Amino acid sequence: MNDDPQLLHAGLAIIAALLYVGTSARQLICLDRQGGAQREPSVIYLAVGSVAFHAILAWLELTKGGVDLGFYKVASFIFLAISVLSILALLVRPLHMMIIATFPLAALSVLLNVFAPSTGRPMVGLESGLIIHISLSLTAFGILTIAVTQAAVVSAQARKLRQHEIGGFIRLLPPLDLMETMLYELLTVGTVVLSVAIATGMVFVDDFFAQHLVHKAVLTVIGWCIFSVTLFVHWRSGWRVGTAVSLAFTGYSCLLLGFFGSKLVLELLL
User: What pLDDT does 205 receive?
Assistant: First the structure.
C-alpha cells in the first residue's frame, strides 16, 4: 500500500511530461504550417491538460504533510506557475514561443520532482502570511522567467532582422515592435508582483538571519532595482531594446542566484 501513492505520483508525472512535450511539438507544427502566430485550439487543450495533471500532482504533494521546498520541488512549482501564466498570456497575446521554449523544461521539472532523490524536508505549520509570500515569490519568478525568455527571443529577432535574415523561426514571430511591447508588459507585471512579494516578506518573515535568508533578500532587492530602473527609463525617455534585454538578464540572474544558488550548493553539491 505504501507504494500506491508513489505509483500514482509517477503516473501523473509521466502523463504531464508527455502532454507538455506534445503541446510544445504541436505548437511548433502549427506555427510552421500557418507561417505565423495564430491561436490554435488544440494547443490550448493540450496545454490545459498538461497543467491539470501537473497541478494534481502538486496538490497531492502539498496535502500529504507539509510544504517541501527542496530544489526539485521548487523548480516544479515554478514551472507549474510558468505554464499556467504562459497559457493565460497566450489567450491575450501572441506569445506562442513561450509554449515551445518553456513546456519541455516543465516536462523535465515534473519528472525530476518525482524521480530524483528528495533534497528537502517538509515544513509543517506555516502561517498563511508566509504561504502567501512564498506563492507570490514563485509567481513573480515565473512571470520574470517568461519575460527573460521573451527578451532572448526579441534579441535574436532584432539581430536576424539587422542581418536581413527573415527565414527560419523569424518568419513565425509577430512584428518586432509588438514583441518589444510584450517584453515590457511582462517585465512590468513581473516587477509589480515581485514588489508585493518583497513587501509581504518584510511583514511575515520574522528573522532573516536565523533563517539564512539574507543573501536571498539582498539579491532579490538588487534584481528588483534593476528591473525597476529599466522600466522607469523606458517609460521616461525610451531605451534601446538591446540595453533593456541586457539589464533584464542581469536582474534575472540576481533572482536566479537568490532562489536557487544556495539550494544548488547545500542540497545538491554538498
Answer: 74
